[in-house]
Design goal:
The chain is of the alpha/beta class. It has helices at 2-8, 12-19, 27-40, 46-53, 69-84, 99-110, 124-130, 157-170, 186-202, 216-227, 240-252, 286-302, and strands at residues 58-64, 88-94, 116-120, 139-142, 152-155, 177-179, 234-237, 262-264, 281-283, 311-312, 315-317.
Length: 323
């Protein structure tokens, strides 16, 4: 910084004000300092800055290895929102959502002096681990249950499932079958709950379900059993990957959507509009979820009043897979 100051002909305090975008620096001086920064290829020493200010300007983000569109989109939304708020993001990826793996990731992030932690928390084990964050390091979860001690932001999955199920009932189907996600994921349980409530409110029978995972293969295998039953005319799937497998199973059985069956998914993945037929699905605003989770964490960091907990409301995207 002193080299930059010497080249620009200013004090190192002025260089600091320019780099921190503080006022009381003329436009000409600011430009002279920035020119010197470029000429010298100056990069700020974040470790030294952390020692001086006790702030790293970094948020820790715990994600997990997955090909699922929802969690991956959450990570992107959080990272984008953090950058827009002037924070760097350090990501720790875990292979397992078990408590011990999340604790290890949290320890790794805290060793980097992150100011706070956001975790993708689709299972209760993640939220439980977040309660062990060191004092002075606030933590926020995204995507899990909201009845725990850690602040949690999430999409209203019950509402989304109700929109999907209600749409199929309004199309004239006597009932709607459901192919759910894993039983130990709060999102899957909430989507099943919304499906069940909507059927009961309409006086429609509740068909049996069989939990699986979030994969297209899981949807395909369960779709084969459903396609063998001529009474099955409408299927609400726990996510778009499951819907892809269900669509193929019914197609192979000679009952392609939408003539042979109506199918609705959940997530609105980028590919869902290019399925054959294009998939009717429930859209989640992952960018907004990212913004709100960062805002909640920053409020906890600064001691500002925290935004009220909100379940983001999804909406139905109607395409050609149901009629």
């Amino acid at each position: 910084m002193r080299d930059v100051a010497r080249l620009a002909g200013v004090s190192h305090q002025t260089v600091s004000r320019v780099l921190n975008d503080l006022p009381n620096v003329s436009a000409a001086t600011r430009e002279r300092v920035l020119d010197a920064v470029r000429v010298l290829n100056y990069r700020r020493n974040l470790a030294a800055r952390t020692l001086v200010t006790s702030r790293s300007g970094t948020i820790g983000l715990i994600g997990f290895e997955t090909t699922l569109a929802g969690p991956a989109s959450m990570i992107y939304g959080i990272e984008t929102a953090a950058r827009e708020s002037g924070y760097y993001v350090s990501i720790a990826t875990v292979r397992s959502l078990e408590r011990h793996a999340v604790l290890d990731a949290m320890e790794q992030l805290c060793a980097q002096a992150v100011e706070g932690i956001i975790a993708i928390a689709p299972k209760n084990s993640v939220a439980d681990a977040l309660t062990q964050a060191p004092a002075g390091t606030p933590a926020v979860g995204v995507g899990g249950a909201d009845d725990g001690p850690v602040p949690m932001l999430r999409v209203d999955n019950v509402r989304g499932a109700s929109l999907a199920t209600g749409h199929l009932l309004e199309l004239g189907h006597a009932t709607v079958h459901h192919v759910p996600g894993p039983a130990d994921w709060p999102e899957a349980r909430d989507r099943m709950d919304g499906w069940r409530r909507t059927l009961h409110a309409a006086g429609a029978p509740e068909p049996p379900t069989q939990p699986g995972d979030w994969s297209a293969r899981s949807g395909y295998l369960r779709g084969q059993r459903l396609a063998a039953d001529p009474r099955v005319t409408a299927v609400f799937c726990g996510n778009d990957h499951i819907a892809l497998g269900v669509l193929r199973a019914f197609h192979e059985a000679g009952r392609p959507a939408p003539a042979g069956v109506s199918v609705v998914g959940f997530d609105d993945t980028p590919e869902s509009g290019y399925f054959l037929p294009p998939l009717t699905t429930v859209h989640q605003d992952f960018a907004e979820l990212g913004r709100r989770s960062v805002a909640l964490l920053l409020a906890r960091l600064t001691g500002a009043p925290a935004p009220p907990p909100v379940h983001l409301c999804p909406h139905l995207v109607v395409r050609a897979s149901a009629r």
